[in-house]
Amino acid sequence: MDAAPMIPAETFKLGFIGAGKMAESIARGVIQSGVLPPHRISTAHSNPNRCSQLLSLGIKLHSHNQAVVEDSDVVIFSLKPQVVKDVVLQLRPLFSKKKLLVSVAAGIKLKDLQEWAGQSRFIRVMPNTPAAVGEAASVISLGGAASEDDGKLIAKLFGAIGKIWRADEKLFDAITGLSGSGPAYIFLAIEALADGGVAAGLPRELALGLASQTVLGAASMATKTAKHPGQLKDEVTSPAGTTIAGIHELEKGGFRGMLMNAVVAAARRSGELSKS
């Protein structure tokens, strides 16, 4: 089989099938980072309010998905999982090995995407909602005909909205349980920390601000110091001090076990959904 032609890094055009919040976050990130100018990005949408938001980014707006595919070298499917199959099948006649296809749809496997598209130059990416603020955790897996150069190109695009990792697709259910669903666990923790502050006498606004910044700061320390989180925990935990008293309560409540169980339960559910 002949190798697929390389996507021209300096001139390629990017198209989005599906123009929701994730597509907007990716487009905004690649524009703001200078990876792509807005005139080389396109999508389609029929809602006037949504169209005005997309046009404010400077990207090109088509009237239908077929035009997006025809106008693009790289096509990202940013759709709800339940509609991916119908949309890919509808657009199938427009696909060729010259186009690099990418899916960010949760739970839709590469083998199905490749079968529906009639092409295996496909890459699957699992980003998460912090993409909206440029802090996504995205994982990439390459399909059968996707080259290393294709992988590097997509890593550069998604690197514009956060950090990226490469992993085998068999790990994607576990990735969904951790980074896909994980932001919700952290939002719950922030809300609970703020409620604890209110219970201890803090005004609500101050408690929420302190809780949010504390989580942000702790996460930054974990990523930037390269220290094990257990070591960072020990460094703030003085003998017979306030922190160990709080940790003792968390351990009595099974805090770590509950978080572990949440990730495993979400991963299991992801596996169930991908088989349905």
**Name of the CATH superfamily of the largest domain:** NAD(P)-binding Rossmann-like Domain
CATH fold description of the largest domain: Rossmann fold
**Overall helicity:** 40-55%
Return the structural class. Answer: alpha/beta
Mean pLDDT: 93
Please trace the helix and strand order, writing H or E for each element: EHEHEHEHEHEEHEHHHHHH
- Calculate Rg over CA atoms: 21 Å
Number of helices: 12
As laid out across the biggest beta sheet, the strand order is 3-2-1-4-5-6-7-8
The CATH architecture designation of the largest domain is 3-Layer(aba) Sandwich
> Which of globular, elongated, flat, extended, rod-shaped describes the shape?
elongated
Taking the alpha carbons of the first and last residues, their distance comes to: 33 Å
Biggest sheet descriptor? 8 strands, mixed
Number of strands: 8
What is the total number of structural domains?
A: 2
GO molecular function, one term: pyrroline-5-carboxylate reductase activity
Keywords: Amino-acid biosynthesis, Cytoplasm, NADP, Oxidoreductase, Proline biosynthesis
Protein name: Pyrroline-5-carboxylate reductase
Main location: cytoplasm
Would you summarize the structure shown here?
With 276 residues, this protein is α/β, with parallel strands linked by helices.
